[in-house]
Batch of 2 targets.
Target 1
Amino acid sequence: MEKFKILFYVFSSILLIFPLIVTAQKKSVDLIISGGTVVTMDAARTVIENGAIAVKKGEIVAIGTASEISQKYTAKQTINARGKKIIPGLINTHTHVPMSLFRGIADDLDLNEWLTKFIFPAEAKNVTEDFVRVGTQLGVAEMLRGGTTTYCDMYYFEDAVADETFKAGMRGVLGETIIDFPVADNKTNAEAMNYTEKFINKWKNNSLITPALAPHAPYTVSTEHLKAIRKLSDKTNAPMVIHVSETKKELDDITKQYGSRPVEYLEKIGFLNNRTIAAHTVHINDNEIDILKKLNVGSAHCPQSNMKLASGVAPIPQMLLKDVAVGLGTDGAASNNDLSMWEEMDTAAKLHKLISNDPKTLNAEQAFEMATIRGARALHLDKIIGSLEIGKRADIVIVDTDDLNQTPLYNIYSSLVYATKADDVRTVIIDGKIVMLNRNLLTLNETLIKKNANIYRQKIIKSLESSE
Ligand SMILES: [Zn+2]
């Protein structure tokens, strides 16, 4: 009997200790997001119901079902995402973020008239470093609230754009604009190149900011200057962002001036490579699509901007057939007029169905892919972002699924592309840090941003009146 008693005590103490041993063996991480439908956008397009993600030091260290993750990991902080969608952060591949302050300044015009009569004069009179800071805060706040975690920009005073973006905790490929006429921050090409090199060296090892060179377009930057920009890009390894073949006028002018179509001309002068990001690529032919693919040039498709300025329709279905790295972009808020990637996805999918007269063209999954992993490829950042996979940076967005506009839900990609709106985004995590929690921005003051933007509205209106 005594023997049984001893055995009983030994057995019960093992039972008591066992959970402690298991807990002690659990790995400690910084953050666990648990309970939602995880849309990974990995190569197999894995979707995990009741899934979870573990994050440590800004990196995704584990991904699986909620029970698998809870058995293996403990976290300092846990976010309950039950009943929500967990998606990779959206990637806006083309913007001019400070132009948010010009939202609605002039609408319903073609690109040439819009640029020369309104945008260039308004920029000449108003763009200062402070303008750029206020506009960046406004645009970044809008993008974060809509679940965009990375954006590609080109503007002036890009060092201030980088500073504000970094302070907000957002990721960016940020290009200093180089253009062949005097602009707000630099009056000559030599000044612009000097500014850009310093800017690149300052930010090149930053965890969130990738500094870039941004020659405006083949029709506003000379061949000689484009070649010098490519040289500086080779020296610094920085990406190059450029508008290419946005309008029929550009196609005609470049063909007349250089005897080649824009993409062919840029290839001929040795400008294009696997660090180039070409915005728009609207008027391109099959040969130019092949060049983009061959040289691994990223492309930014901006359907709403192209529609609003009646610039034309990029041959996206053909580009996807040839697996070109094409992402989606909003372009600046002055030609859109918002920075919502949800609208771009929805518009892209519908526009190409209409144009091709085929509803099977550009399905919801392809549109979502362009806003995530293919967008990451367009920015040449697909090794670190664009999908929810072990080893990638933790850029994660939690989206509600129970709003009226999302009910009922049959197909996850259909719901994301055709029904979800920016307002449905709940929580945003970038590089493992929470920047928006339950719709509250943690890194930016929305009230102050709106107040400052409205002060600029008055200044801008005054500046345009005085020129008349
Ligand atoms: Zn643009």
Target 2
Amino acid sequence: MDLFSPVTLGDIELANRVVMAPLTRMRAGAAGVPNDLVVEHYAQRAGIGLIITEGTYPRFESQAFVGQPGIVTDEQVAGWRRVAEAVHARGGTIVLQVMHGGRVTHPDVNGGRRVEAPSAIAIDGAGHTEKGKQAYPVPHALTVEEAREVRDDFVAASRRAVEAGLDGVELHGANGYLLHEFLSSASNQRDDVYGGTPAGRARFVVEVVTAVAEAIGAGRVGLRISPEHNIQGALETDRDDVLATYGTLLDQLRPLGLAYLSILHAEPAGDLVQELRRRFDGPLVANSGFGTVTTRDEALALIEAAHADAVAVGRAAIANPDLVERWKGEHPENAPNAGLFYASGAEGYTDYPFLAASRS
Ligand SMILES: Cc1cc2nc3c(=O)[nH]c(=O)nc-3n(C[C@H](O)[C@H](O)[C@H](O)COP(=O)(O)O)c2cc1C
């Protein structure tokens, strides 16, 4: 297979197999509304087969970053509508990553609200808030009833994303945020229906994904997971437990016929990812994680060897708005400026040059 060939993920037709990984950039202001700059940023990258937006909050409690966009208010929906129209006008496709930050936030980020998690266990560490760096608080352990409200907010957010004209949603089950916190035995120490065993820990994620698929159609829904990423305290150090937990999760999701499963793991071609792919039995989007920046050669090799159906690309897509054109023509690439990933304004966001500009 060829990285530059088209592929269909559920209801979404991609012109090529390069996927823009979800990338938090924190430029949506205090109201969390995608503005002109955000519209321009995504429109510039419409040549990528599928854009996954930055993690976007489905309820106020779940906001994890200052300047993060949401999909709660009418203004936020209107902002996303402008993004979707701009990307579609340039022939691209785009889905919204719906992200509940779980315990990885602070009341000085989420507007003074409670911090929600499966269990009342704080992460060791500090996060950036409106008042500088502060230690993460001990979160409120969601009751079963409250967890179902959160599930309903995932559904409402996903409906709003489709109403706004996006092609679908990616549910963020990775990187130590709420859904991942339910999966990991380090962050989930419940003894009710949502914990205790691999099946118990998987249950909340199964319910959220199933409810969203029923609401907007499974062909518009992807799920991102990062087993063994061991990030933000969502530790998964026992391979047998990981296989049991993610195996039962995917056994229950398989019949839904989701658009895709996106897996972030250091070894996409390794046993674990390929076993989870078999269990899911649908399109796989792969990403090898933060250790090294995804390269053209890595992406080409993953597709050529059929280890994945598409490749999620993060930092190279930040730095190269015309990434697919560059990779196709083997042109040189702009280098990402990590110091500006989470800055504000156009610098390091919309000012990376296009090929024509860099040649002249
Ligand atoms: C600035 C930045 C922001 C990120 N934001 C998100 C996010 O909102 N949601 C998510 O699932 N992953 C996020 N990630 C992880 C990326 O999607 C991707 O997995 C990571 O960058 C590794 O891929 P790469 O080597 O191609 O950059 C982020 C990574 C970076 C560098």
